[in-house]
Structures are given as structure tokens and as C-alpha cells.
């Protein structure tokens, strides 16, 4: 029984040795194991006695493998097959018409492994979102209380970003409903050649039941530039051409063309808050005195550090240069929103 056990172990060792890869070094030694990969001038060999070894390719004079390997030469030619030891620094590859010089091998890797010479795939796109409810008091042309709710989703990739949003607001003034607005839109931005430059397109549709406008459609497309774009801080400038169409309840419509200039600042303040500020200037091309300036700044303060719930406090100012007689040009809105975020 003992003889059979010893004979079986010896047979397994022989089979293992037969299937092992061999690497001959310039100092005359021979390493036996499993060649994992050869890339960037380094060979990784897995051995039974010494563990994982990393060998400089310049020290290797010959290679023999028990199983086929994939390979890329310095001229980007691809080969596949078992390597057989040759002479004068030349290796024989099964299926190859001629021997290959060892120094001409750029990379070797096993079946089922990823080509190490290929660049890593870009980071995939990631979705995140938020939902909010808000209350606001307004001073200026009117004194009123309004509330609203909204949801938005953001897809962020290595080269682009897509924002989708939907929100609505409702207001009562002197016990009379004075506002019912619904707004939906998207904002798509794509970097140019992975630089701080980008192009963008933005579109929004709005329905306001108390303004006489049945549907307002606004489309902007243009160029953007990030003065800096870091993980915690970014500052971006945009300039684009604007098209605005208003469809009135009486069946009439109005088209306007203009420019859209926007400055966006965003900063994460340690772990407790995020500050976002936007300043937009939209002059009309039809009439030089017809322009609008809009500013909004908001600070998100987490209510519970372990929960995705935050309080958003902010202020917005809207200035319209051309207004109806007796109306004020500036409207100021203060708001507080309860925001729930997810990823």
C-alpha cells in the first residue's frame, strides 16, 4: 500500500513537471513553474517552492511553455501557441512560420486573460438622483407663499454628463390660487477630447396656467469651459445660442433668439455641506434692451451624516429689464427645500 502511494505521488510530480513552464536565465539557472504573464519587461512566474517570482526580461535567454499563450510582438503582430526553447535567443512558436527573437516579445499572457497591452476600459456611467419638497416666500412684485416638489436624475460618465429633471410649484395669494407651474428639461454636456473644454445642449419645456402662456420652450446649445474641475470644487463658464418660443392660450405664439451666458460654481465644504451658485445673463438678439439676469445660490446641509437627507437653503434673484408698466424689474425668492439623495 505504501509503495503504491509513493509511486502515485512520484507519478503526479512527473506529470506536474512535464506540464510546467521553464525559463532559462543568463546565469545558467532554470526556473520551473507556470508563466502567468510577461509585460513591461517583467515576467511573472508562479512556482511551487518559491511562490510568485518577478523576473527581468533582460535576464531571460529561453522560454518553454506547456500550454499555448497569446502574445504581441514589438511591431504589434499577434501570435498564439506553445513556446519552444530555441537557440541564439530565438523562440519557436507553434503555428509561426519562423522563430521569434526573445527581445521582440512585447507581452505574453494565458488563455482567458485580458490583453495587458490594451488600455483599461473607461469608467462606466453612474446614475444618481434626488427628490425634494420646498417652501418659499417671495417679495417684490407680489407677496405670496408657494410650495413645490421635484425630482432629478444625473448620469455621469468619464466624458459626458446628462441631467434630467421634472418639477412643479403651486402658490396661493390672498387665499386665491395664483400659480401652477410644471417644468421638465434636460442638460447634456460632453467634453472635447478629454480637456476642460466641452459642448452642451439644454432644453426645457414649461407650462404655466396663470401667465396666459400655454407652453414655453427654451433651447440652448453652445460651448463650455471649466476654469478648474476638481473633486471638491469646480468653476464653469458657458456661452450659447438661445431659442425661446412662447405659445399663448389664445392661439398666438412668439419666437425670440438670443445669447445665453452662464457662470456655475460648486464647492463641497468638508463633509457637512455643498455650495452651488449660478449666474445667468440672457440678452435678446432682436432687441438690445431685452435681457434677463438670473442668480441662484443654495447650500445643502446634511441633516444626518449617515442618511442621504439634507436641508437646502437658498436665494434667487431674477431681473428683467423690460417689464410691464408699474411692475418691478427685480424679484427675490427665499427658499428651503428638504432633499433626499440616492446613488
Structural summary, described in words:
- There is one protein chain.
- This protein has 343 residues and is mainly beta.
- It has two domains: 2-110, no CATH class; 126-342, Beta Barrel (Lipocalin).
- The chain has one helix and 23 strands.
- The chain has a twelve-stranded antiparallel β-barrel with strand order 12-13-14-15-16-17-18-19-20-21-22-23.
- It is elongated, with a radius of gyration of 34 Å.
- The two termini are 63 Å apart.
Fold blueprint:
Elements: H1 2-19, E1 21-25, E2 30-39, E3 42-47, E4 51-56, E5 60-64, E6 69-73, E7 78-81, E8 83-84, E9 90-93, E10 100-101, E11 105-110, E12 126-139, E13 144-156, E14 160-173, E15 176-191, E16 197-208, E17 213-229, E18 233-248, E19 253-269, E20 273-283, E21 291-302, E22 309-320, E23 330-342
Antiparallel strand pairs: 1-2, 1-5, 2-3, 2-11, 3-4, 6-7, 6-11, 8-9, 9-10, 12-13, 12-23, 13-14, 14-15, 15-16, 16-17, 17-18, 18-19, 19-20, 20-21, 21-22, 22-23
